Each structure stands twice: as C-alpha cells, then as structure tokens.
Amino acid sequence: MKNYLRFNREKWQSFSATEPVKITKEELAKIKSLGDIINLTDVKEVYSSLIKYLYLVYQEKRALQQKQSEFLHQKIASAPFIIGISGSVAVGKSTTARLLQVLLSRTYPDLKVHLMTTDGFIYSNQELERRNLTDRKGFPESYNMKLLTDFLQDVLSGKKDIVYPLYSQELSDIVSGEYGHVCEPDILIIEGINTLQLPTNGQIVTSDFFDFSIYIDAPEDLIEKWFMQRFVRVMELNKNNPHNFYYEMANGPRDEALKFAEETWQMVNLVNLREYIAPTKQRANLILHKTAGHVIDQIYLKQI
Ligand SMILES: Nc1ncnc2c1ncn2[C@@H]1O[C@H](COP(=O)(O)OP(=O)(O)OP(=O)(O)O)[C@@H](O)[C@H]1O
Ligand SMILES: CC(C)(CO)[C@@H](O)C(=O)NCCC(=O)O
C-alpha cells in the first residue's frame, strides 16, 4: 500500500490532541448495533482526528464550490458532501457510520448530517428469486444500480426531498411501502458493501459521487466471528417474534441454525468479500483496520 500513510492509534490521536470530541456514555450506548461495546477510548483516540480531518476536507469542498460559483458568475445549488463507507458484511460499517453521524453533528452543530445505507437498493427477495439471484444476495448484480445512480444524481443536483427504499436486517428483505428521505443535508454518509465497487458495464459508479471514502478492514476470521455473533444475537432477540426471518430458526434445532449461518458466511458473504469487496479497498481515501474486539489498530490515509 505504497500510496498510503500509515498511523498507529497513538500517532493518529496526536493530530487532534487539543480537542477530543465530546460524547456521553448514553449517546454511545444508542449507537451500538446489538449490545456491543464501543468504548470512549476509541472515540478519543481514533474518531476525534477522523472528524477533524473530515471537516477539513468538507471545508475544502465548500471553498471550491464557492470559487466555481464566482468563476461562473452564478449561484449553484450546493450539493452535500458525501462520505462513503465500505467493507465486508458484518465488519461494522453501520456502527462506524452511526458514530460518525453523531460525532459530526455534535462537534459541528450547524451541520445537518444524514445517514443511509445502500442496502435499500438491493432487489427484494421476490425479485431476487425471479432473477435466480437468491444465492447472490449482496453481489453486484443483486443491486438495482440504475436506481442508486439516479438517486445519487438527484442528490448532487440539489433536489429538495429525495426518497430511497429501505432494507430491514430483521426481515432480511426490502420493507415494502416504506422510504427514507434525503432533505438537503450538508453531509450525507452512505454505508454499504458496494459503495466502492467498479462498474461491470461502463456505467457510472457510486464512488464517482463521493467526496471521501472509508474502507473498514479486518482479518476474515474475525469478521466471520462477528457475523456469527450477530446472527445468534438477532436470532435470540426474535425468538418470540413470528413475523421475523429468524423466528423459525430461533425455535428450531440450534445446530441447524448455526449451520445455516456458517453456510451463508462461507458461500455468500465470504465469496463476495474476496471477489468484490476486498479488491476495492485501495480505492478508499482512508482505511480503518480493526483487530480483535473491534479495536482499530491501524489507520491508513491515502496521500493526495
Ligand atoms: N466498534 C464496535 N465495537 C463493538 N462491536 C461492534 C463495533 N462495530 C460493530 N460491532 C458489532 O459487529 C457486528 C457487525 O456490525 P454492523 O452491523 O455495524 O456491521 P455492518 O458492516 O454494517 O454489517 P452489514 O453489511 O451486514 O449491514 C454487530 O453485531 C455490531 O454490534
Ligand atoms: C443486505 C446485505 C447484502 C448487505 O448489507 C447483507 O446484509 C445481507 O443480507 N447479505 C445476505 C447474506 C446474509 O444474510 O448475510
């Protein structure tokens, strides 16, 4: 990774030593996906500098937009600053994205920060079945990329209220009839496994719209462990919820449920990670590398 500058936590932290971001334990508890531990040390040692750096890049974009407007002698709708977050299924993208949203809003209260995931652009389970793509869920062809790029084009055009479909991890499907709204945010955080993927047929890709991208990296065996732990937790939470995707498994033989999860990891998510997600790592502006317990041990920043 020749074009990246590598920092350990200690060094990275020193870039923001004077003003660590403030967050309460209660706020942190709300961010955690499913009862895990994100400690305040991470916020102090990793996220403070990250927030500060993101704000620097944000200001640069705004200054450039201003200059473009002056050069052209016209007012141009200022598109949001878009941050993309990529990485494997279960590596912790949504947890990091939620943390960034809270910390950015907290540190810069005038900024409106919206968070969303590309999960909503995956075809519904019914449509995946129709296309014979059930075993390819999460792979590039399982997303409605036209819908996603049209959506992003609307975002950049400065349109006021833009709707997008929603996905539920609990249902393991698109939620029909429910939509998210993007209403002129200053910063838009978009997380998803496909956010750095290259096009298969020369079309525009998601990352063409990003101002800054982050890849969350970790050893495969750890991500598998986090995937299995989340699976068991979601299953337990839905033991008494007959409408849930995990309900039957939660009330059936435990070893069969674990076998299903293991197969999903081995045959779907791990294959996707190796073939389509990990190869996009070096397209990111910043790589957060995690070790056991989700501890970020290395930070790689791409040289400009
Ligand atoms: N910093 C962290 N500390 C502790 N646990 C974490 C942390 N980040 C993520 N986790 C846990 O790891 C699991 C995966 O995290 P998360 O759901 O954020 O992943 P994801 O990459 O968004 O997954 P997907 O692509 O399936 O949506 C969850 O159980 C989550 O609670
Ligand atoms: C929605 C995706 C594809 C991406 O986040 C993922 O969370 C997913 O549901 N993958 C399919 C295999 C699985 O259930 O883990």
Question: What would you note in describing this structure?
Answer:
- It is an enzyme of class 2 (transferase).
- GO terms for molecular function: ATP binding; pantothenate kinase activity.
- Keywords: ATP-binding, Coenzyme A biosynthesis, Cytoplasm, Kinase, Nucleotide-binding, Transferase.
- One of its GO terms (cellular component) is cytoplasm.
- InterPro entries: P-loop_NTPase, PanK, PRK/URK.
- With 304 residues, this protein is of the alpha/beta class.
- It has one domain: P-loop containing nucleotide triphosphate hydrolases (Rossmann fold, 3-Layer(aba) Sandwich), CATH 3.40.50.300.
- The protein is 41% helix and 19% strand.
- It is built from nine helices and nine strands.
- It has helices spanning 9-13, 25-31, 40-72, 93-107, 125-130, 145-157, 220-237, 247-250, 254-277, and strands at 4-8, 81-87, 113-117, 162-168, 173-182, 187-191, 212-217, 286-291, 295-302.
- The strands form two sheets. Strands 1-9-8-7-2-6-3 form a seven-stranded mixed beta sheet. A two-stranded antiparallel sheet has the order 4-5.
- A hairpin with a 3-residue loop joins strand 8 and strand 9.
- The longest helix is centred in the N-terminal third of the chain and has 33 residues, at 40-72.
- The radius of gyration is 20 Å and the shape is globular.
- The model has no long low-confidence stretch (mean pLDDT 90).
- The site of adenosine-5'-triphosphate has 18 residues, from helix 4 and helix 7.
